[in-house]
Amino acid sequence: MYRILLVDDEALIREAVSENVQWEKYGYELAGSCENGKEALEFIEKNPVDVVLTDICMPYMDGMQLSERLGEEHPSIKIIILSGYDDFDYAKKAIRYGVKEYLLKPITAEEMGKALLDLKAELDKERKAEKKISELESAYRKGQQLLYSDALLHLIRGSKADEEIRRELAKVGLSLDSAVYRVAVVELDIYARSTYKLDEERKRESALMAFVLHNISQEIVEKNKAGEVCQGKDHRTYILLHSNRPAEFRQKARNICREIIGQMNRIMQLAVNIGLGSYAAETENIYKSYEEAEEALEYHYIMGGNRIMEIEEIRQGKRQADVERMLDVLANHVKGNESQKIEDDFKDMEKELRECRYDRRSTGIVLQRVVDMMDELCRLSETEGCQRAVSGEDVLDRALTAGQLREALDILASYCKKTGEWMDSQKNVGGKKYAVMAMDYIEKNYGDCDLSLHSVCSYLNISTSRFSAIFKQVTGTTFMDVLIGLRMQKAKELLEHTDMKNYEIAERVGFNDSHYFSIAFKKITGKTPTEYAREMRK
Q1: Is 231 helix (H, G, I), strand (E, B) or coil?
Q2: Model confidence band, residue 419 (pLDDT cutoffs 50, 70, 90)
Q3: Residue 388's pLDDT band (boundaries 50, 70, 90)?
């Protein structure tokens, strides 16, 4: 039976809930009731409970404050909030404080019963796990074999001379005279992730999980009479498989590894990676099998976790990936802002790198090239702000520290799609900006006879070909048409409203040759400057 505390400032509600809920039917006993959060904390200090059922609005300390305090001081206590407020902010806070259920008033007995049963199932699961861990801790204290583990690790790693290792093994009653040996290195998948950090709170939990892995591995190996097992300080389990029947050994080794993975998945819901080295016929060569097992284990990053990685299969499948082709295809899809195709490109990249058996270092080089290519696309696009908006600096760090290839490629796929979206969104915005700036520059400098496409592009810091395309797209005409049109318009105004000579007007509007000015003016208006002025002044 689990103990539950009821907290509500309304006596009638406390009484109604206390009497109408069949606590024992759902596996609970009502430990007591309190009027507010402050009173509830004082009660819990003297009377431990498993669950707190609380209202939100109460004097002195409300339900949210109580939930926060319980999360800090009594994290094992489960919380159910019973509220009359269907408010999203309250719900968000409840989630943040670890509240298990957020129930809205009025609530039926059936709804309350379901919530209590769901919570009981979770409590049962935790109690079962705690009991299992407690049993394993006890077994671990009783069964430590440090000398055995040290001697076996020295043998596996080849860290001492063969004769010295044999003397150590003899001290612990271990004599090896099998026909064939093979090393398996087993680790929990969480330790394979470079982002997994052991803070103080996790250290005890991590040691226990590693011990469970060691125990399960040992039980399976002993059951099959297939070798020796020890645990390293790095939380890995090391298995020295050996047999006098080489023909059956390969399949037996794989079956043992599969069973270890299956048991850890089923009993502890934990994923496991196993690296298998090649065969050794002599004990002095066992260390080579160990080094190969370590090498194979590194490929969990590229091949995925919760699996066996054999060094022979990895080496047989190794080849060079067509990285250049993959990058070219990806670049085209980013330029076209083709989101689905970008995702497909990364799926193809994952498949290619897996099939080519790329290790983590080689894969890191490919990831670096993807980020470099995106930065170059931003630079070449001449889209102001692109590199700031989709900077690859932290993206690469996150990709390189991802636990597995799939996670790393997901990070880069998101980055590439963001790059494509940004470049696409800025095409029109940037084009209009360049066109407006160019028009303003022309308006201010049309009288300069040296004004040209090159001088405008130099001012805007953009290539002439790109500017011409943008300007035409935005204005529907060319730079020269706009410049000549503006000069002719200004010339008309001067001819209409001043007594300036033709050569003076030509010079004023940007022509250093009055004869050429007259030809251009007639081509545009159908009249010479003199004819136009005479007609305008009639």
Answers
A1: strand
A2: confident
A3: very low
Establish whether the linkage from the previous residue to 106 is cis, with ω within 30° of 0.
Answer: yes
Cα separations in angstroms, 531 against 208, 396, 521, 536, 538: 101, 70, 11, 9, 11
As a whole number of angstroms, the distance between CA 371 and CA 2 comes to 54
Helix (H) / strand (E) containing 405: helix 405-445
Question: How does DSSP assign 131-145, residue by residue?
Answer: HHHHHHHHHHHHS--
Report yes or no: 120 and 27 within 8 Å, Cβ to Cβ. Answer: yes
Segment 53-76 shows an average pLDDT of: 89
- At 102 the three-state DSSP class reads strand
Q: Using alpha carbons only, what angle is made at residue 533 by residues 527 and 536, rounded to the nearest 5 degrees?
A: 100
Tokens for 470?
């943008």
Q: Residue written as tokens 């048409």?
A: 481
Under a CB-based contact definition with an 8 Å cutoff, are residues 297 and 276 in contact?
no
Contacts 24+ apart (CB under 8 A), 65-68: 65/37, 66/7, 66/37, 66/40, 66/41, 67/93, 67/94, 67/97, 67/98, 67/99, 68/97
Name the token pair of 31. Answer: 């430990």
8 Å CB contact between 209 and 129? no
Do the beta carbons of residue 1 and residue 28 sit within 8 Å? yes
**Exposure string for 51-70, b = 16+ CB within 10 A, e = fewer:** bbbbbbebeebbbbbbbbbb
With tokens 């009639």, the residue in question is: 538
Q: In this structure, are residues 260 and 272 in contact, taking their beta carbons and an 8 Å threshold? A: yes
Quickly tell me which residue has 């006879």 as its tokens: 449
| 297, 308, 353 from 359: Cα distances, Å | 10, 16, 9
Alpha-carbon distances of 66 from 115, 124, 148, 330, rounded to whole Å? 20, 24, 51, 53
Measured distance CA(236)–CA(209) in Å, rounded: 10
